[in-house]
Amino acid sequence: MDIRFITRKIHAYLDYPVAFALMGLPFLLNLGQSHPVALWLSVITGFAALVLTIFTDHETGVFPIVPYRAHVAVDGAVGITFILIPFVLGFTGLDAWFYWLNGAAVLSVIALSRAETEGPVTA
User: Fold this and answer.
1) In a domain, 107, yes or no
2) pTM confidence score
3) I need a labelling partner for 108 at 20 to 30 A (CA). Which of 4, 15, 60, 115 fits?
4) Are 91 and 99 in contact (CB under 8 A)?
5) What's the rounded Cα separation, in Å, for the pair 21 and 4?
6) 118 in a domain, yes or no?
7) How do the residues of the chain divide into helix, strand and coil, expressed in percent and rounded to 5?
8) From CA 23, how far away is CA 13, in angstroms rounded?
9) Helix or strand run (H / E) with residue 107
């Protein structure tokens, strides 16, 4: 039984709320107590994720330029970075847990995603 249930379409609809959460939650959670980068890394990553989503060739992309597989590769790199960055920069407490949990969530979504060979999105 294959447990990979996240399709490209589901991923596409998750991208926008995740991008906005990455931009807003650091302020709501008052991140940056252990290191100022803990606040701004998420905000910048969220903005970059929004731009990437707008330019990704999937169901919610506005300008479908970036191949979906490249988008997923970037997501994977972000997930790994989010897991490692608290160790590298010495984040502690909520700052560290925010990145560990987000990194784990991103990598889980990738692990639960179906390997799809869909071509470009057509209207």
Assistant:
1) yes
2) 0.89
3) 60
4) yes
5) 24
6) no
7) 65, 5, 30
8) 17
9) helix 93-111
